Amino acid sequence: MAGGFVYTAVESTAMSTAEYYGNTLAELGREHPEIVALTADLANSTKIGIFQQEFPDRFFNVGIAEQNMFGVAAGMAKAGCVPFLSTFSVFASLRCADQLHTDICYQNVNAKIIATHAGTSFGQAGSTHHAIVDLAVARSLPNLVVICPADGVETANAVRAAYKLQGPVYIRINRGFDRVLYGDPDYDYGFEVGKAVELHEGTDITVIATGSCAFQALQAANFLESSDGLKVRVLNIHTIKPIDKEAVLKAISDTRRIITVEDHSIIGGLGSAVAEIIAEAGKGCGFTRLGHEDNFAPIGLHEDIMSIVGIDSNGIIATVREVMNKDFEQDDNWDDEV
Amino acid sequence: MSLSKQEWLALEKKAHELRNLCLDTTYWAGSGHIGGGMSSIDILTILYHKYLNIKKDDPNWADRDRFILSKGHAGIAYAPVLCDYGYNDLEQLKTFNLTNSKMGIHLDANKVVGVDASTGSLGHGLPIAAGTALAARVLGKSYKTYCLTGDGELNEGSIWEAVLSINNFNLNSLITFVDRNHCMIDGDTEEVMKLEPLADKFAAFGLVVKEVDGQNIKELCEAVDFALASDRPVIIIADTKKGAGIKMIEGDYKWHYGAIDEDLYNRCKSELDEYFKARIERVEREAK
Ligand SMILES: Cc1ncc(C[n+]2csc(CCOP(=O)(O)OP(=O)(O)O)c2C)c(N)n1
């Protein structure tokens, strides 16, 4: 791990992603007395309550009043505290969008938003609790660093890194347990804000994934290697902003085919960010975005929704085959494009 | 118009049926917001079985009374009410929370018949209810709007913004209930974020406040009758218990959301029966 810290926070592999967050925050709290924590009646659900147990005097539950929480956090940050605030991603990004914009980002205060229940991870709660546009909001806000970790260990890395950064950070993590991508907490895979992680080497096509889709992409790559003999490069882009432009440009030049996968709308998130880089590069590149089409998601278990939406390994495998069969480089026929 | 003993008994029986259906649905789904579901059942019962002017066979009737469940997470109680009433097939309750079901934790107005607004994000329902009440005035319609909020939900600023509007526009066709069960997710409302003196706060904002026992059908009906006759908007603070009817979870904030297995289900069933018995005895004692 960059910086070589020891994960005393991470003793068990059987922890939910949010528990990795709570434990890491408590650990940071021991080192840094200026860290304070705020929530809006979701201490237990977001696991910021783990910090509360240890530091009750530095923890503030503002009740079910998210907008107020963002304002209070901005004030505390201005005075020198480093607030970590947690609520569900849908509320952090939308209910509080104005406070996030004006109180946190515009004033560039040193507040860290750790938003839980991201994407469709609270699937059964329906669209009022699905966060499928939060990356679009967060990505467009100046000064805000936006991170979407793939699992618990990556969440621990991201939370630590967020503290080290000066300025606002938005981290979105899932509810419940993520499929484990970085099983061993001591394994140093070189997490760095703004740097993609190559999960699988490949020269035929690149799958760029974020959050829980990274694990799915890796599975798809392993399968396609043995079944189709395809060499699929898999990039875990955990930092949505600033995005690793270099890694995307390299993928364009090396593989000429890119698929993005995210538990988010295909509008405004990872797919859009990568599309912008491809378009500006001016190079031919086969490209497909996987994510939520311009629709609200169905109700259901997270893994079911991922399968229905086609952002699980099966969906990725099918799309890789489709994109591989598209002869875009020689394609002079525009009839099927318009 | 006082509640006859016969009517009171019929409403008690209905509330008991709906409590059972709410428990059943929680069991079928494996888990649910049973605490805040049970505290709301008596309010939902009197609305759907005494007050709401709605038509079973015409759920979109333009002149219908509106009901907006501002505390949208009580879908586990509301879905049974809407199915039992006849708007949706009762069998649907067995799909609650399942993948691709029409019914998830928070009911979707575009999928579940009879739902006037898709709620679940707290603090949205009351402003929408103020809007339907205001529209009635503009459109010259005489329908009423009823709204049910949580008490933790009252932390949201948008609730108080709505109350300002309700007072300012004198929306007396809107009758608001607060399910005052004293619990939110992280604890007692007075420990997490003080609300008291709650009645005084609403009164200072210009509403007429009625405080009643929210688990007493008769008191609830009297409050609605009062509100219907009032030329100023009324808010009914219904003093309730989270998990009302199931002793082992009653008043425990930890039962905001809980899982129910077969063993627990059976114990809850018998507690509901005992609760019903006690409620019927109260009717026998207190009805005229
Ligand atoms: C805007 C918003 N913030 C947070 C939540 C998560 N949440 C769901 S229920 C709940 C507690 C509600 O408490 P209360 O209004 O008292 O409801 P009751 O106790 O009657 O169930 C919270 C915080 C939400 N649904 N919406």
Give a structural overview.
- The complex is a heterodimer of chains A (338) and B (288).
- Chain A has 338 residues and is α/β, with parallel strands linked by helices.
- Chain A contains 13 helices and twelve strands.
- Chain A has two domains: 12-172, Rossmann fold (3-Layer(aba) Sandwich), CATH 3.40.50; 197-328, Rossmann fold.
- In chain A, the strands form two sheets. A seven-stranded mixed β-sheet of chain A has the order 2-1-3-4-6-5-10, with helices on both faces. A five-stranded mixed β-sheet of chain A has the order 7-9-8-11-12, with helices on both faces.
- Chain B has helices spanning 5-29, 34-51, 75-85, 125-139, 157-168, 189-192, 198-204, 217-229, 262-286, and strands spanning 31-32, 66-69, 145-150, 174-180, 208-213, 234-239, 258-259.
- Chain B is globular.
- In chain B, 53% of the residues are buried.
- Chain B has a five-stranded parallel β-sheet with strand order 2-3-4-6-5, with helices on both faces. A two-stranded antiparallel ribbon of chain B has the order 1-7.
- Chain B contains nine helices and seven strands.
- Helix content of chain B is 45%, strand content 11%.
- Chain B starts with a helix and ends with a helix.
- Chain B is α/β, with parallel strands linked by helices and 288 residues long.
- Chain B has a single domain, classed as Rossmann fold, CATH 3.40.50.
- Chain A binds chain B through residues 39-45, 49, 61-65, 67-68, 90-91, 95, 123-129, 298-301, 304-305, 308, and chain B through 72, 97-106, 108, 118-123, 152-153, 155-157, 184-186, 192-193.
- Bound molecules: thiamine diphosphate.
- Thiamine diphosphate sits between chains B (36, 39, 71, 73, 120-123, 150-153, 179, 181, 183-185, 242, 256) and A (41-42, 64, 91, 95).
